[in-house]
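[RESIDUES AND BACKBONE]
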Amino acid sequence: MAATGCCVLTDFVRPELQETLRSEGAAVAPHAHYDVETVNVYNIAVDGELPADHPGRVEFQRGNAFVARDLIPEDLIVHRLYTHPVFRRFVADCFGLEEVHELADPLSGLCLNVVRPGMEHPWHFDTNEFTVSMLTQAPESGGVFEYCPGIRTAEAENFDDVRAVIEGRGEPLVRRLTLRPRDLQLFKGRFSLHRVSPVAGAVERHTAIFAYSEHPGVIGSASRTRQLFGRVLPVHLEAGRAVRGDLLLD
């Protein structure tokens, strides 16, 4: 974690529960909000006032989908993990934090990411500094997690390297992980450019995302929530923009 901002703990869920983990995810996957949209690595307006050579000018088609927390039953393995105080304590210790909290957001605290065959999750940065996830169903092929550890810092965007990677010229900066179901991934995605490569074959790629915050009461913005889940609740309309510890593009 200290060296690359990423750690994979293999076989985190017991082998005899692998099929249960997979089938539970597959059962809720049809409830995912699906949309194809034009994005860039910063998830900001692609038609914004950016210089012509800015990496934010490079557009991608994002065609992945998300199942919101309120559609994931509480008895599922991923839900039981997300809400368990021992698991939360473990996550905090892994990231060297005093404490982490479940998001107060009723939709985005826990979600299932669905990438259908032929689709991908293109290059991007996370808005949160750390991410916890677990593959629950692997695709037949493709769907490889690729990342560029520490390609930017809180003080420097490093636009030249970012553009080199998204244009296919930054191969030395890219690392790859072929994740397996039951593996727990701990990742610092705020400063590491990353993506899921196109999924091939006939099987969807399913990943549970456990979202925590160092501060209690965190709720996503209405615009981001609508983008991910196709709907908002009254609590999102009342929430302000998340406070960041840096001035980076989102």
